Amino acid sequence: MDRLTCSPRLMIVSDLDHTMVDHHDPENLSILRFNALWEAKYRHDSLLVFSTGRSPVLYKQLRKEKPMLTPDITIMSVGTEITYGNDMVPDEGWVEFLNQKWDRNIVSEETSKFSELTLQSETEQRQHKASFHVKKEKAQEVMKTLSERLANRGLDVKIIYSGRMDLDVLPQGAGKGQALAYLHKKLKDAGKLPKNTLACGDSGNDAELFTIPDVHGVMVKNAQEELLQWHAENAKNNPKIIHATETCAAGILEAIGHFKLGPNISSRDVTDISDSKLDHFDPAYEVVKFYLFFERWRRGEVENTEAYLNNLKSVCSPSGVFVLPSGVEKSLHDCIDKLKDCCGDKKGKQYRVWVDQVFPSQIDSNTWIVKFKKWEQTGEEQQGCLTTVIVSSKDVKATEGLTWVHVHQTWIEGTAQNTRNDWFF
Description:
The protein has helices spanning 29-42, 56-65, 92-98, 104-111, 136-152, 176-189, 225-234, 248-258, 283-298, 305-314, 332-338; strands spanning 11-14, 47-51, 73-76, 81-84, 89-90, 118-119, 130-133, 157-162, 166-171, 197-201, 216-219, 241-243, 316-323, 329-331, 351-364, 367-378, 381-392, 403-411. It has 425 residues and is of the alpha/beta class. The model has no long low-confidence stretch (mean pLDDT 93).
């Protein structure tokens, strides 16, 4: 949050599984559409918050499997953990708040008396969350009795049932909605309350998100029965909450447009990106557009390849340099010539490219430095590098695009750089 000097234009607070992430789409197209829009149009002045029932362990596992962006804030374990930034620094104030009228040992004692409850994996048992599986037909009875017993032991808890099988016991002050309310207050106290907030979800543990004042809400098309039932009973006539006609992240894009929160057309929705010209210089957009072209090039989806290569050369400085992750320096023009070797080499494969945390900084009237992470995924394998690009507007019009002067890449820690002989740009 510290990177923004004023109120965010938009804060998106999204659940992950079956909301931002579509587990039924092996091509991950909806989340990739969202990624391209966010990095091109929102990253620089908005906040992205992931709000998930997953523990930190399972959250990090999902990041290795799916083409996910890095959020500014991560709410995990059904709203019981809040962390910030790349290093996922915990919010200690939130921890102190949740400790009120909560005793994990008492919760364990009482829940062990219910044969209907089956403990979830050890990774899902957290300081302020006890998680179980329970059959749907037993859920309501168990919740009522357990709530009474814990109250009699002096605890103030909240029991959430979602996904037709998951039961979570939390401190009363916890939950996705309360975590969002806490963040809103924290931002407001800092003079940075978002101009608009969009909450996105698909299951019962997301319902609280839609109860926070002045929040727009979207239930994605594939929302589960318990969330639709909650909406029918509590928010049927609320115009600020919609049930999208699109599934998962595509439903989020739909909601951005429906509520007029900003642009909602992703670069991935543009068939011919060479025709997408701007009337102003936009370094983030240029980066997103280039790597989208690069993906389509390697997937064999680009026609008139010679014209594209000539256009690329025209937007790269003749003296431009590319420093590869290995440290080898090459001419930008030579690298573009080498693209001929990889045209269509990923055709028929589950190959995708995306950029993350695109941050442009203008260093003089004609020059920008753009820093970001560039990721490739083929099947289940992800490879990434930290990238710095210098672009210039000197002697060019906005409609012609910025001139690429310098590209420098280094491997992201943990990538198998020694096995990659086919890394381009």
